[in-house]
Design brief:
The protein has about 70 residues and is of the alpha+beta class. The chain is about 25% helix and about 45% strand.
């Protein structure tokens, strides 16, 4: 449920939820969306989220951000 909600955010490229660790890894394009819009999508889906960390990643010569959320 929460994975689908975050995947719908414009600019989100990949979402991975780990229920055993209660966290979510989100790759997104910071030129299109930011971590606050991702957290809002989680909250609108009825969950709580806090930002655990953000780091820049490069795939196929494109720079994106990777966001780790604690659910």
């Amino acid at each position: 449920h929460v994975e689908k909600a975050v995947a719908k955010v414009t600019g989100v490229k990949e979402v991975q939820v780990n229920l055993l660790k209660n966290n979510m890894l989100v790759e997104y394009n910071e030129a299109i969306c930011n971590e606050h819009s991702i957290v809002n999508a989680v909250q609108n889906a009825g969950y709580t989220a806090s930002i655990q960390g953000v780091k820049a990643v490069e795939k196929n010569n494109k720079k994106d951000n990777s966001l780790v959320l604690l659910l």
